[in-house]
Amino acid sequence: MVVNITRDGDIAVVTVDNPPVNALGQALRQGLWDAVATLDAAADVRAVVLICAGRTFIAGADVTEFGKPPVPPHLPDLVDRIEGAAKPWVAAIHGSALGGGLEVAMGCRFRVALESAALGLPEVGLGIVPGASGTVRTPRLVGVAAAVDLVTTGRPVKAERARAMGLVDAVVTGDLRSAAVAFARTAREAPLPLPVSARPVTAPDAVWWEDQRVAIAARAKGELAPLRALDCLRVAAERPFAEALAHERATFLALRGSDQAAALRHIFFAERAAPRPAHVTAAPRPLRSAVVVGGGVRGAGLASALRSAGLSVVLVADDDAAVLRGPQTGGPSAGAMAELIGDADLVIVAAEAPVATPAVLDRLGGMCRADAILAVPSGAGDPHRTAEPVPIPARVLGLNLFGPTAGVALLEIVPTPATGPDTLATGFALARALGRTPVQTGLGGGSIGHRLRRRTRAAAEDLIRQGLAPATVDAAMRAYGFALGPFEAWDGSDPVHVGAMPGQGTPGRADLSDADIAARLTAAMAEEGRALLAEGIALRSSDIDLVAVHGHGYPRWRGGPMFEAGRQVL
Ligand code: 3HC
After folding, report:
1. Ligand 1 within 6 A of CB of 422
2. Is the CB of 311 under 6 A from ligand 1?
3. What mean pLDDT comes out for the span 308-315?
4. 421: preceding bond cis by omega (within 30 degrees)
């Protein structure tokens, strides 16, 4: 049963149990719909606690239903029904109350949350707006400004902040169920507050709304949902509740069927599938300690991310790593370095050439404990080659971290033919610990990330040869939604065919619009993606999209080159 009703004296406890995240699929909506009737009819029930089993409160509508026609009971009707129940409902929140989950909680008369809980309306991240009164009830609960922030950014807030803004009534510690039952009992001693839909809302003036629009448009860079969400919030602040609800629902249904929403759903599921590929079945090795060798800012960022993940970490500066190239004056001795390296479960070479020469990698491999994992950036040394001389090649893995800082969301995992299954599984576990999306990439001719970058560069240089200025190409790609143009994004790691570039070119000589330029470059990326799949370097086309989105600033709401190319074929 997805909905179970138990009793604690005169308080009923409705427990939702719909793993993994209690998403509001049809069966759950129906179960809650029926629970309202059952409990309204139970004369000795004074209040109802709504709580969830498992790791989280209701995490939202069931995204897998989004491609299909809506089936009753519809979520907005369910939220109204809970709000209109004869007995007050109290939402007891742990984990995350997101999207439809928070909307259900706002239909309840009260909300209590564990300190560790988070609440939010992340719908814009899926290319939609909240579709069950999120844009209409939230401003009535927390005011318009806070509602605009919550809805248009999609960022969740932690429980204490939610309490400060009025989104929850109490933050509790210890056993959530007993705390919520006690809260419900006390609440029944006082007059009930108004249901959220009946609360007043103060509408800001037109200038305020215009300022919001300008700021959000600048952030959205072509993404539709945040601006449509702002429209909904304005209607909610200025028009009666029922009218605003109808406007929100119409917007939600229109966006749900949009290309942007389909693209964002594709990335949502690709990100969730990425950490658990079917072929990675071995248990990961335990990781308690790590040595990060060199890498400047990138190495330091990585070391701090590993520390946050709970590992004890030693960072060897590039200068000190020089001892690996041979005897040095100053810095640690080779013996001290060997001892340090020999202690670690994981040795990550973050240094690039000239520190990470093949000879250095060989020496490092010799210093690693027999059961340690040696991770090498495939951009620096070939993990293939590194695997040869080390005592246990099965423990060598290529890892590519994109970008210079820890803020980048991608980790490319590059097994060599000798990499053991547990080493590979550890690479995926490491990505989880670092909070990065892992993508496995094969060897031979460069990783997915490097190949996509090189191909985009080559296609961009072609355009320069046809007379376009680099700045024109960059601007066209930014207009398409890329974070940076190909010439701005170039970090010096790939060779540029300088001889082939005529320098500044003559703007406009090749008669190409911004859209033509973007079409050329994204088509080149898709073509390279098809080659990567054919060569077995990429295992799934969605992995290529993830690398493009997280590694190369491809607009998330376009879904990546493979997704876009696939749609053109359909
Ligand atoms: N619908 C369907 N499946 C979902 C889902 C959802 N809303 N949210 C998560 N899942 C699935 C994932 O696909 C994954 O499935 P798998 O195990 O088969 O791969 C599983 O649940 C676990 O997900 P995570 O790996 O992400 O689990 P975490 O514990 O790391 O994170 C979470 C949990 C924070 C709840 C995270 O899953 C999340 O952020 N989910 C999305 C929440 C969301 O966007 N909600 C809004 C939906 S839109 C909406 O509600 C519209 C409404 O306004 C009408």
Report:
1. no
2. no
3. 92
4. no
pLDDT at 402: 62
- Give the structural domain span for 343: 289-446
Give the model's pLDDT for residue 196.
98
d(CA 248, CA 237): 12
pTM for the complete prediction? Answer: 0.88
Which of 197-211, 389-403, 419-433, 536-550 shows the highest mean pLDDT? 197-211
pLDDT at 456 over 60: yes
- Candidates 65, 83, 123, 238; catalytic one: 123
Residue 353 pLDDT level (bands cut at 50, 70, 90)? low
Domain count, the chain: 3
Name the residue among 26, 191, 14, 168 with its Cα closest to residue 89.
14
Amino acid at residue number 562: M
- CATH code at 508? 1.10.1040.50
- Residues 429, 472, single domain; the answer is no
Residues 336 and 426 in one domain: yes
- Which residue bears the tokens 């810095």? 331
Could you confirm whether 123 is annotated as catalytic? yes
- Find the mean pLDDT for residues 322-337: 73
Residue-wise pLDDT for 373-390, tens only, equals 998 876 544 555 555 556
Residues 53 and 191 in one domain: yes
Please indicate whether residue 248, judged by its CB atom, sits closer than 6 Å to ligand 1.
Answer: no
- Does the residue 281 lie in any domain? no
Q: Is 503 left (phi over 0), alpha (psi -120 to 50) or beta?
A: left
Q: Is the domain of 173 the same as that of 123?
A: yes
β-pair type (118-120, 110-114): unpaired
* Predicted pLDDT of residue 483: 87
Q: Whose CA is nearest to atom 33 of ligand 1?
A: 21
**Sign of the Cα pseudo-torsion (505, 510, 513, 518, in order):** negative
Burial class (CB in 10 A: 0-12, 13-18, 19+), 268: middle
Secondary structure (3-state) at 213: helix
Q: How far apart are CA 489 and CA 356, in angstroms?
A: 24
- The rounded distance, in Å, linking the Cα atoms of 560 and 67 is 19
Which ranges constitute the DSSP H helices of 309-387?
Answer: 318-321, 334-343, 358-367, 383-387
Active site residue 388: no
Identify which of 2, 74, 272, 437 to mutate to test ligand 1's pocket (most ligand atoms within 8 A of the CB). 272
